[in-house]
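Table S2 (text version). Query chain:
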Amino acid sequence: MPSYKAPVEDVLFLLNDVFGFERYNNLPGFADASPDVVGAILEEGAKLCEEVLAPLNLPGDQEGCTRREDGTVVTPKGFKAAYDAYAGGGWMGLSMPAEYGGQGLPHTLNSVMQEFTSAANLAFGMYPGLTQGAMAALLVHGSEEQKRTYLPRMVEGAWTGTMNLTEPHCGTDLGLLKTRAVPNPDGSYSLTGTKIFISAGEHDLAQNIIHLVLARIEGAPAGTKGISLFVVPKFLVNPDGSLGERNGVSCGSIEHKMGIHANATCVMNYDGATGWLVGEANRGLNAMFVMMNEARLAVGIQGLGQSEVAYQNAVAYAKDRLQGRALTGAKAADKPADPIIVHPDVRRTLMSIRAFNEAARALVLWTALQADIAHRSDDAAERQAAEDHMGLMTPVVKGVLTDKGFDNAVAAQQMFGGHGYIEEWGMSQFVRDARITQIYEGANGIQAMDLVGRKLPRDGGRAMMRFLQEIEAFSKENAGEAALKPFLGPLAASVGDLQKATMWLMQNAMAKPDNAGAAATDYMHLMGLVALGYMWARIAKSALAAKAEGNGTAARLDAKLATGRFFMERMLPETATRLARIAAGAETVMALPAEMF
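Corresponding structure-token output:
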């Protein structure tokens, strides 16, 4: 059975050495997150993920969820007890405000826990993950009564949450949705319609499920301008907070899908269900985007999590599996063959995954810190800079980390040869589970188009200029550090490729929009490579400083530096290939008439 070890030491190095977590003590919640407290929190979270969640991953996948004739859903054996342990440990409200029962700690720590949970058991992690997204939307756009009614029980974990967007005829283009809302005399609405692909839509883990549902109020404008958001509980809530009668919402079926079998992905039927408007009428997308953006970052973390757990198991197998002899002579002369980790191509595969994982984790934490600044700082300029970062990096984190997460899960599976194709080894589950991350919360092609079409030109390109300026300032500050030259040189070349690609789009996308569409995915990955390269440069600087000061294990710091050099030499040069594809334009992409496909 696969195993998982949460990378606590690596996270602490990033927080303490690379990003200087304690420097943010002026922000609410950070003063309570001293290094000792953070270390204790992460160790406890790691223990839960390693000892409780990870052992349920494979059997949960094999058993799946079961829908009963009455529409209720039973999760796999052990999931209810695991959820109770998760909720009982206070993980649901780790970064939620204390006034609703949360601990008020930095969101960054919640992002770390999301990685651990996603790696240990992706299907399980979706239940609390969606709840946290729903809480975020209610916290920003819910009325005071809605927040008092729902948030404390959701923070407690007694109730969970979902997001209901997609309909059978309506995916990305939400302007086509047909679910309708009819006003009731008491100010509530009656919702009728069908939603599909609703993760955690029905289950036996919590007492109540709070659905956030997009619908169109009768008489509202067509398209996206007429969409409103509603909160629709599975059980109605009485004035005293107790549960009342069952609402008119039910699970019609569970989707039969490629992976994440232990998460109940439901077709949800709304038959005159009672709901309440969240925020303003006809501005539902504005409210739902709080949850969607949170979910997109969380999905990027899921991609990293699957890459990490697949890597760990591939390394363990490569050290144990005997096959052939090293090209330079036997390394295990007392055995009939050498372990496959001696072979350069196996090393290339494992190093590629490792180099991505470490930089991707840094990118996630860097972005999570910006989210904390955006929501907690009282400095308007700091908030704006952080929001610029979030807007620019959200499609990159979602798109690049999930594309590479899936690729890495496949590459890790390859290390097992035929065993990787056999279900009992667990590697095929990582591949199947990772695949959905590229699809939901906005397919990755949509993320790329969002980056190129909306995020890049917003505010005159202010966010992009700020990103490039930060890298330039870092490079200038460290130009005299000889030990950093293997990092700064390749980083500068990749930044040059990004600047050329950006200029090409500025010159060629407006007059011919297909150029932007054809370039979008390559541009997103080019930018992702530059961001990961910048993370490696920062990691290398901190590792060199730690070595000089005698902090940490020298061998572990040397391993980071070696892994970083591998990324700079073998992976970052891909920016040149991405640039060549972008500059080729859309002509050959659009050349064939549709009937010739």
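Notes on Table S2: The CA atoms of residues 67 and 73 lie 4 Å apart. The chain has a mean pLDDT of 96.
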